[in-house]
Amino acid sequence: MVSNRCIMAVKEELKKLELHFIVVGLGEVEIMETLSNEQREQLKSALLNLGFELMEDKRAILIERIKNTIIEMVHHSDEIIKTNFSDYLSEKLSHDYTYLANLFSEVQGTTIEQFIISHKVERIKELIIYDELNITEIAWKMNYSSVAHLSNQFKKVTGLSPSHFKQLKYKRRSPLEEIGNLSAEQTDINDINK
């Protein structure tokens, strides 16, 4: 789950199934009751109809928690991280970062760092399109050490400088669930270069 609409849809399904929830957040649900096998199957079916899945594999759940923590931090928070992402993830998820990084790479086929960079670049695109902040302010907001660092990373991912991206009339952004997926990023770059 990556948006408030997703959370609302899941809450609605839980209410329909008369399940009481404590928390419904990005990628996680805490239910008060212990689910029977029948309730579990009903919930699984309801979630599938919404395009979601009920995850029971602890490794898959942890991967989703890593992704959702990154998405929340990059896209939905105005909080500026004062520590590096590895310390932040380790503290937030109560696991050693090396373990998280190895698991993520093994399952996703990409590093946590690349996933973070992909999301940061997508957020930078959004901020450029909104045109409320200049590039220096965006660099500060996204916790880059300098405008040059932001520009280099942006160009490495998109093939364009931030200023060139801003000048484009065709400004396509990627859906959050496609970010970090190499083929989706290549499609975006190919579309921009047309």
Word description of this protein:
- The chain is mainly α and 194 residues long.
- Among the domains are: 1-54, no CATH class; 114-192, Arc Repressor Mutant, subunit A (Orthogonal Bundle).
- It is 62% helix and 5% strand.
- The chain is built from 10 helices and 2 strands.
- The protein has helices at residues 4-16, 37-49, 58-75, 85-93, 97-108, 112-130, 135-141, 147-158, 162-167, 182-192, and strands at residues 21-25, 28-31.
- The protein has a two-stranded antiparallel ribbon.
- Helix 3 (58-75) packs across helix 5 (97-108), helix 3 packs parallel to helix 6 and helix 6 (112-130) crosses helix 8 (147-158).
- The longest helix is centred in the middle third of the chain and has 19 residues, at 112-130.
- The radius of gyration is 19 Å and the shape is elongated.
- It starts with a helix and ends with a helix.
Number of helices: 10
The outline comes out as elongated
Q: Any low-confidence stretches, pLDDT <50, length ≥5?
A: 183-190
The rounded Rg comes to 19 Å
- Widest beta sheet: strand line-up: 1-2
Outline the biggest β-sheet: 2 strands, antiparallel
* Residue fraction in strands: under 5%
> What is the H-and-E element order?
HEEHHHHHHHHH
Which homologous superfamily in CATH is the superfamily of the domain at 114-192? Homeodomain-like
Structural class: mainly alpha
Question: What is the arithmetic mean of pLDDT?
Answer: 83
CATH class of the domain at 114-192: Mainly Alpha
Q: Give the termini distance in whole angstroms.
A: 32 Å
- Helical content stands at 55-70%
Total strands: 2
Per the CATH scheme, the topology name of the domain at 114-192 is Arc Repressor Mutant, subunit A
CATH architecture of the domain at 114-192: Orthogonal Bundle
